[in-house]
Fold:
Amino acid sequence: MDMDSARDLAPPPAAGRCPPLASAELAGWGRVPRRRGALAAPRDAAELAALLRAGRPAIARGAGRAYGDAALAAEGGLALSMHRFDRLLGFDPASGTLTAEAGVVLGDLIRAMLPRGWFPAVTPGTQYATLGGLIAADVHGKNHHVAGSFGAHLGWIDLMGADGEIRRVSPETDPALFAATCGGMGLTGVILRAALRLQPVESGWIREETVAAGSLDAGMAAFDAAEARADAPPYSVAWIDTLARGPERGRMLLHLGAHATAAELEGRDPYATPPRRSLTVPMDAPSWLLNGLTMGAFNALYWAAGQRRAAAGPRLTDWERYFYPLDALHGWNRLYGRRGFLQVQSVLPAAPARDALAEMLDASAAAGLGFLGVLKRFGPQASPFSFPRAGWTLALDIPAGWRGHELADRLEAIAAAAGGRFYLAKDARLTRSRFEATEPRAAAFRALRQERGLAGRFASAQSERLGL
Amino acid sequence: MPLPPADSPVLILGARSDIARALAHEYAAAGHPLMLAARDPATLAADCADLALRHGVTATAHAYDALDLGAIAAFFEALPATPRVVIQAVGYLGEQARAEADPQEAAHVVAANLIGPAAALEEAARRLAAAGGGTIIGLSSVAGERGRAKNHWYGAAKAGLTAVLSGLRQRWWREGVQVLTVKPGFVATRMTEGMDLPAPLTDSAAGLARHVKRAADRGRAVYMPWKWRLVMGVICALPETVFKRLSF
Ligand SMILES: Cc1cc2nc3c(=O)[nH]c(=O)nc-3n(C[C@H](O)[C@H](O)[C@H](O)COP(=O)(O)OP(=O)(O)OC[C@H]3O[C@@H](n4cnc5c(N)ncnc54)[C@H](O)[C@@H]3O)c2cc1C
Ligand SMILES: NC(=O)c1ccc[n+]([C@@H]2O[C@H](COP(=O)([O-])OP(=O)(O)OC[C@H]3O[C@@H](n4cnc5c(N)ncnc54)[C@H](OP(=O)(O)O)[C@@H]3O)[C@@H](O)[C@H]2O)c1
Structure:
């Protein structure tokens, strides 16, 4: 051995190492369906490319917060966990543009950027989703009617194809592939990095007000009234009592919000918010815990509390409590027990929406099974495959027994008849025929996948089920 | 011994290691600027950007090959700042079967886990002492506690590293150099990826890093996860006649 160096002892580094595959049982947030399949967690682009070039049909997986089977491998395929691509890469304060890797978790991004005065322009109801998942589902927030969906705030996406090559796609360089990747549910390639325009905010607080509306019509009118206000708050979402019947059917609490100004914080550090206390559900709850009775009682209490809050007037709520109330209870999906749960989220064109919503709420109350109901209004959006379009969107959580599936089927039928379509980030059960009937855009999406060499190379359990 | 202040630079050797990355976040979150060193520093650019954005600290990347024994002094000389904390994370598990059959491979395992990393720490200790003191954190392993058929060359090298760290502690403590020997058990990292490790005995890199930083802040000499203290307590107490029959 040369006295100065032991370098000759090390063989030259092997290029394009293919990381080992594990066999793992995976599920989405609803915990059904569960599927055992191959899983890999590459560390860098070279490892990812080696995995893709090996030729198995692959699907990227973020934090697994989609409810159904969107991030589960197809039969004989491979799920690619992106959690190691978790770096923030750069920030340009002049334009508010952040570049980051796809596995970055939204809450981490916020914690890094909020103290500098920036916040995501669009956020879903969980801070645990990853950047890649937010793009692939083209998520909407409570401000869709003013801000559009997540994809409207992207400069570009670095996308890896089945050939292992990275392409920077943007509305300028490749508008078709860019637009299809937003809302493309991972079926256009693996998102590696993206440039995201943030919104400037003066504080980490939200000025929140609650409007209690005693019926479906009163609630829909309250949305209109809030949007018509001179100081119309950008955020609006309603919790809807899915078990109330008769004249109270569809009663709801409309939660309105706007980012508080620094002045409203009266000299306190505007970006400092109290640390979140969180609880964890330690194990699967027994399946009977959430039933029509307990949920009816919960809804009645929540409604009463909401009425008191509505009377109390506006208040300041910190960003975690306002945007991510459910995140405070880690693993709340286990409350439904081993059977898991479904969420049916549809969007209905504005005109027929009212009657279809009423019909869905009646079905839910009659079954005594629609547990958590959320109503939002969407502004206009025209995308090749994203979920949002102008109209009303209702999301209903349902325990996944056979009666739950029966109710889900009924809700889907009502939405389909009213010209609605379904959110694939929530879907675990649509049939091919219902999907085809509600998605005239599917043919063009399939054609793009063929043309770009993506068909057969990127596939999920969901795309297989839906024939995408 | 006073702790290195929160604005004092931290040097991480073998910074691409999963454990090292987690340690970088621990130190950056506490406000320390970082110097990250690895064989291919270009691959550290994203980590440097991330550490700077998340934690508001500066992070720089530097070329370092633990096997390049002649380059150690020059490496330290070229650093942009004098570190007050030096973390040695370089390690190479190798393949036992190859190391058994090929002395060259055995020598590689010993050089990459013992000679190279320890030689760099000799230099680091001298420089920390000259700068008025500081902290050395060396990543050894429980594998160095007792030789096993599964990885006795790796174990031998780690046993050697543990001995060197102990010696460095004794040699330099009067000059204010604190030495922490870290003996992880199983950690889920690139080194162990694809191995069938028992979940209850396997730590995450992030969890280990939290404990290591805390042990260093408290001035501890050795950190070994408590479950592994129990396991190794039993293993090291077994008589050789029993131990040789075990297959683990
Ligand atoms: C409590 C809760 C509240 C929610 N609220 C909302 C809401 O208000 N609005 C809304 O729109 N959604 C909402 N969602 C849904 C959630 O935002 C989406 O499902 C999102 O896609 C989850 O991101 P993820 O990182 O967990 O992705 P996963 O669930 O792991 O994957 C989802 C899809 O993204 C794809 N994907 C993930 N990473 C990549 C990548 N790097 N490259 C390519 N494709 C990728 C997957 O293939 C899959 O098709 C909510 C979910 C929960 C659990
Ligand atoms: N994982 C465990 O279960 C475990 C248990 C006990 C102890 N440890 C020890 O913990 C430390 C960190 O390991 P890890 O688990 O994080 O594994 P890892 O990710 O494989 O890290 C090992 C690192 O050592 C680097 N390295 C190897 N030879 C080098 C050389 N000649 N010059 C410079 N760098 C070199 C590698 O650099 P490249 O990136 O350039 O390849 C790699 O980043 C190691 O010392 C390991 O022995 C690990």
Residues A 29, 59-66, 70-71, 82, 102, 124-126, 129-130, 132-134, 136-137, 139-140, 185-186, 190-191, 326, 425, 460 surround flavin-adenine dinucleotide (ligand 1) (CB under 6 Å).
